[in-house]
Amino acid sequence: MLKMMGRLCFAHKTALAPMVRVGTLPMRLLALDYGADIVYCEELIDIKMAQCERVVNDVLETVDFVAPDERVMFRTCSKEKGRVVFQMGTADPERALVVAKLVENDVAAVDVNMGCPKEYSTKGGMGSALLSDPEKIEAILSTLVNGISKPVTCKIRILPTLEDTVNLVKRIEKTGVAAIAVHGRMKEERPRHPVHCDYIQAVAESVSIPVIANGGSSDIVKTFEDIEKFRAAAGASSVMLARAAMWNPSIFRQQGALSVEEVMEDYIRYAVRYDNNPFNTKYCLCQMLRDRVESPFGKRLHAAQTNEEICEVFGMTDFYNKTKAELEARKAALQTNGDQTETRILFTFTVFMLVSVFPRRDYPPQITPKMYLLEWSRKEKLDQPVYETEQRTQDRAFQSTVIIDNKKYRSALWEKSKKFAEQAAAIVCLRTLGLPEGRIGEEHSGLVNKRKRDDKKCAALDDSDLCRQPFI
Ligand SMILES: Cc1cc2nc3c(=O)[nH]c(=O)nc-3n(C[C@H](O)[C@H](O)[C@H](O)COP(=O)(O)O)c2cc1C
């Protein structure tokens, strides 16, 4: 019961829909300010997210998930705490769990995209490709529901027949998801096709979890009042808006929408305050300009390359300078307080990775990843790796975490023995750090040849032995 307290509830809500490139932090905060109850982030692909590092950014007061190439894939802050849903693109239950665990404490819920009809999504078995694989849907959703403490939801498109659609959502409901968002179009249908409110209604009548109606922008929802009309027409508990909110997020305002000019200025304030990627800022502003994007003003906006230049176009240079000065002052204060001098302040984090059962036959006799990690820690003059292992009751399987250099590494999979669980954790660590693991045939694997440490040989090691391999 305690676990349920404070969980995001999806009934009787209005939500900002997930939108690639549009649903970044400034847009989400703006939608919340104007009255949205829940905001979805843009779809983020599991493989990319699994490589991210969670970084607390004390200057911006955000939590960032940063890719190995330093790109911020997902940025969130306390203003949206409890209301932001992390949408994931995935076709793999275990990988989905790895990512869900990574973001679990920073988001209110995790959603799986099962509606995207774009080839880049479907060819990997993600998005709407999942709709024809209900077993996979069940595996992904139940793994997430059982694996994380936050609510899990999914967003689907409708199937060609009403019966198939209803059967699918009934199966989905059984996985324990907290809600289901239904885009009332089939995967072949485009936004210009009318939304099938009758399908959404049939779904809403057939399940007891909240159904979130989606697909009403443009033909039904043009004003705040239309949101309720769409909800009623679809017989749903909640409504999710994509395009209508992308064009003017103040559609969520009960008192009526603001002018797009005013909204764009509000957007820019958040974009500067949270150091949003300028190309993303520009993209979102261009969506709001719509057909005025070709006007002289639109062309000036298009030419801007930085948030500072975007502010110039909007006559907001004073705001830009003031905000930047405040951020610089905060950064300087953090530095004088003896904190790290970097904007990115790292802290202990846990890396999860999928390392299946320790493949003993891939290693020479008496050589193990644990030995490789130990050798490396000695060479780097770090404390020896510490292993913590837990055993689960249902199948007595083991999962280990290795702690080294203040960071934790763990395989998301469970092993039959404690010994193998520790080896799996060591492999996760070695792979994350780009170090050799000792596998037969592996390049640069000649680090350890004997079980007993040969100190003389170790002392002779140079950096080439530990050369970084691409992150996998
Ligand atoms: C720019 C844009 C990006 C989108 N990206 C996503 C996405 O990342 N995940 C998703 O589930 N749907 C995505 N969609 C689909 C919307 O969430 C929504 O299902 C669709 O636009 C219908 O809702 P609407 O009529 O309110 O626009 C996107 C739509 C747009 C216009």
TrEMBL record:
<dbReference type="Pfam" id="PF00035">
    <property type="entry name" value="dsrm"/>
</dbReference>
<keyword id="KW-0560">Oxidoreductase</keyword>
<feature type="coiled-coil region">
    <location>
        <begin position="317"/>
        <end position="344"/>
    </location>
</feature>
<keyword id="KW-0175">Coiled coil</keyword>
<keyword id="KW-0819">tRNA processing</keyword>
<dbReference type="GO" id="GO:0000049">
    <property type="term" value="F:tRNA binding"/>
</dbReference>
<dbReference type="InterPro" id="IPR013785">
    <property type="entry name" value="Aldolase_TIM"/>
</dbReference>
<dbReference type="GO" id="GO:0017150">
    <property type="term" value="F:tRNA dihydrouridine synthase activity"/>
</dbReference>
<feature type="domain" description="DRBM">
    <location>
        <begin position="368"/>
        <end position="435"/>
    </location>
</feature>
<dbReference type="InterPro" id="IPR044463">
    <property type="entry name" value="DUS2_DSRM"/>
</dbReference>
<dbReference type="GO" id="GO:0050660">
    <property type="term" value="F:flavin adenine dinucleotide binding"/>
</dbReference>
<dbReference type="InterPro" id="IPR035587">
    <property type="entry name" value="DUS-like_FMN-bd"/>
</dbReference>
<protein>
    <recommendedName>
        <fullName>DRBM domain-containing protein</fullName>
    </recommendedName>
</protein>
<dbReference type="Pfam" id="PF01207">
    <property type="entry name" value="Dus"/>
</dbReference>
<dbReference type="GO" id="GO:0005737">
    <property type="term" value="C:cytoplasm"/>
</dbReference>
<keyword id="KW-0285">Flavoprotein</keyword>
<dbReference type="InterPro" id="IPR052582">
    <property type="entry name" value="tRNA-DUS-like"/>
</dbReference>
<keyword id="KW-0288">FMN</keyword>
<dbReference type="InterPro" id="IPR014720">
    <property type="entry name" value="dsRBD_dom"/>
</dbReference>
<keyword id="KW-0694">RNA-binding</keyword>
<dbReference type="InterPro" id="IPR018517">
    <property type="entry name" value="tRNA_hU_synthase_CS"/>
</dbReference>
